[in-house]
Amino acid sequence: MHRGAWIHGPARDTALALCWVPFAVAAISVQGHRHLLAALLSGILLLSLSHQPVTLALVYGDRARFRDHRLVYAAAPAVALGAVLFGLRVSLLLVAVIAGLWNAEHTLMQRYGITRLYGRKAGDDHGGLERPMLFSWLGVAMLAAAANPRTPHYLAEVNLGDVNQRGITFLTRLRPEAIVLLVPAVVIASVLTVRWGRAERAAVSANPAKWAYVGATAALIATVCIDPVAGFAAYVGAHAVEYFVIVHGAAGRRAARGDGGAVGRVVRSPAGASGFVAASAIGAVIPLMALARAGSFTVATGAYLTVGALHIFYDGLIWKQRSPAVAADLRAYAATATAA
To answer: Is 165 left (phi over 0), alpha (psi -120 to 50) or beta?
Structure first.
């Protein structure tokens, strides 16, 4: 396989595709030990929280990027905070369900984005097949978790935080409906997967590196179906790790071109891309944790959900691969171009 088929290289890409495995193995290993499992999940949720402020640093630390959507970036924090506080006042359950579904969709879209990176490097246009296929897999996973009679038992052993707990508990209340919908969901997912497989086999320039990543995603989804707690840990933990790796590489390439504003200057300094990512994550998480300890539930939850909402919303704006600059940041070019 040509090296250009990979994003970082065979070893690093394989490690990234399988970075969910340690989280799943750790969760399975400590099941039955309530305190250890709670500590593990708390650590994974903290990791998840830490990756979200990095997006805000990318937007507000890069004047050129900020100018792309100046009015949106100026108004979004106040709008998001207002919407979150209003939602918390109306119904915490409603906020939990919306936050959970939006975050699940966002996490899957990151996996779709990485899949498309591999697709662009092979010159394929299978995004119209891959997006519905991946969403059908997520639908199967959510229905399987809801239909699994052991899911309430799993939830009784852990503390996922009030917002996550309410959202997942609501999902398990839909068990009768989930059982009915699971079979057609599996059929739809199977049909879409077969169609994608045929398109990949027929492609003139297929990318086996993409197949490996999609296969790893399928195994992750299967884990969610079989063991919801281990799957949750793997799904959430891997998303944060992937994001750190993506930002590290993209920020480094942007800075190397002389771009990036204040972010670029930090990355070009001795701190490097790793220093920028670490400072952005830790520098925001510490105040959020202090707020959670000192503030009221509404204040702490409002701040956490606002940062999460901005992270998801901004990601949809700054990682558009159709932009030549973003494509260059992400190395989203064809392998044939690399060889030229």
So the answer is: alpha
